[in-house]
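Researcher: Please predict.
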Amino acid sequence: MDMLAERYDLTEREQETASLMARGYTVKRVAEELVVAESTVKGYGKSIYRKMGIHRKDELIAMVNEAKKLI
């Protein structure tokens, strides 16, 4: 995840959010883990998707899985 975070200039919170989302966590579960509001997680998600040029969670999961192969 560090490689993707650096490549796409993700903040620490966006990196944490993306990591949990890539594990298949729901917005509600991510919010519980990070102790923030669901609306905050949705905002992070929009920012992550914009920065990474993606539109869906499955694209995020695919990118994270591909990055893991390169390690």
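Model: The mean pLDDT is 93.
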